[in-house]
Amino acid sequence: MNHNPRRFSIRNIILGLGLIASLAGVVAFVRTKASSGPVRFGRRWSRNLRVLQLATRTSGSWVSWKARRTFADAGARREIDTRFEMKTATQITEALGEMKGALMKIGQMASYLDQGLPEHVRAVLAELQHNAPPMSAELAAGVIISELGDSPDQIFAEWDPIPIASASIGQVHRALTHEGNAVAVKVQYPGVAEAIASDLDNASLIFTGLGFLFPGLEQEAIVSELRQRLVEELDYDNEARNQDLFRTAYLDHPTIHVPRVFHEYSTARVLTTELADGVHWDEMLTWSQDEKNLSAETLYRYAFGSLFRLAAFNGDPHPGNYLFRPGGQITFLDYGLVKRFTPTEVIDFGDMIKSVVLKPDKAEFRSIVERIGLLPAGLDVPDEAVFDYLKHFYDFVHEDGVYTITPEFGSESIRRIFDTTGPFTKIQKAANVPPSFVVIQRINLGLYSMFGELNATGNWRRLAEEIWPFVDGPPSTPMGLEIERWARDRHPNAKGAMLSR
User: H or E segment at 134?
Assistant: First the structure.
């Protein structure tokens, strides 16, 4: 039997969600039963029950699809497949969108992560990027009253009760301040903190399951890091501080725009920022290849420039967090999930690059990987195998020349992490994700998938050498020259490359 790889991808997502949902629901039931006698259908149980119901619905659709497909001819099978995929994707989108929290982030990632997903499925899941079901106008107004002390119609000169975006933690409304500033007001969903806590409890179970496949994972450290980052994301005061950090670094940058925070209209559960304009990811994908390349260049400069020059990484890189304008101009939204790195951690990232790209040395690379904790010392595999396994993630910067990042590159990045049926099984099963790598893995799992969808083309090696502080190369593109002029104007007495190259 010939397997359709596109159908295999959506099947894996469906069955994976079903497995996770079933496990979470069953364990939640057992926990509740053991700890409190009769089952109480409180908020956390209700949430786990909804996840279990999602698993039941998708599993039922799967059985029905299998039965119908068995007796259909080739043409009818294609139609049955499409109907099944659409129905299941819609079920998942509706359920995760209503539940919000960490589970909704899974759906957001699925919408752009797997390049094998059929386009009609990706389109449905993409609604989770910035268009999830919103809370009512009354609930949003209630949060404003409790946080800012009065109704939104009084706090602001103008208030639009219909949200312009809704995501995993909160939703965004347009407003006009009494000072005449057009703003975006992010209002946190009531109860989302409890939802995140429930999801994080279940995350421990999920990583326990992954431990059977990947024994090298230090599960408690990974869950602890995720818990810390997601709890920080619930604190809009913390997000405002993160956004101030990035805005100061990129103020008046030629292509990177970070909206201003209006602190007088912000609290721990309400965040008011400058209202930005631009088009969303799906519209940008219709632009010319040259324009898409410019967008990719800015995304690269922002992610890696911030990592190496600011020692910070905005850890939620997905298409719903960007607004695009021609010429590579991008507004970067959402600073809730920001990882700040120690100087030692940044040096570790640089040491890996030096030993795999600049001066390839397989033994040195192996020793760095072991020192950081990605692999245990003494694993019975040759240095060459370790080098070949991880070198893929640096392929597009390895040579000085034009390189197109294809969808296959993004898919291979994901396979290198999760597919244990290939030649690197022993390495994968022994590999760990130390805390400093947990959030930054979103580059491999998200950013490279987006670059693949863009077919992003450029001389990435020279662009990288501009950004790497241990190379500090000259501008390699027209955008680089603009940035150099901007940096010189900001710091006329400074020497060498500036932060935001």
Answer: none
CA distance 161 to 146: 17
Per-residue pLDDT tens digits for 432-479: 989 888 888 878 778 888 999 999 999 999 999 999 999 999 999 999
pLDDT digit string, tens, across residues 157-180: 999 999 998 777 888 999 999 999
Find tokens 């500090």 and name the residue. 472
DSSP state of 456: -
Task: Please check whether residue 330 is in contact with residue 299, taking contact to mean a CB–CB distance below 8 angstroms.
Answer: yes
| Contact partners, residue 498, CB within 8 Å, separation at least 6 | 309, 483, 484, 487, 490, 491
378: exposed, middle or buried (Cβ count in 10 Å: 0-12, 13-18, 19+): exposed
Are the C-beta atoms of residues 315 and 440 closer than 8 Å to each other? yes
Q: How far apart are CA 261 and CA 44, in angstroms?
A: 33
For the cut 60, the answer to whether the pLDDT of residue 98 exceeds it is no
Q: Phi and psi (nearest 5°) for 164?
A: -90, -15
Candidate list 316, 334, 348, 351, residue with the active-site label: 316
Q: Can you tell me the distance from the alpha carbon of 310 to that of 339, in angstroms, rounded to the nearest whole number?
A: 11
Report the distance separating Cα 208 and Cα 20, nearest Å: 11
- Please enumerate in sequence order all residues whose Cβ is within 8 A of that of 250, keeping only pairs 6 or more positions apart, or say none: 256, 257, 258, 302, 500
Q: What is the pTM of this model?
A: 0.75
Identify whether 316 is a catalytic site residue.
yes
Would you state the pLDDT for residue 483? 97
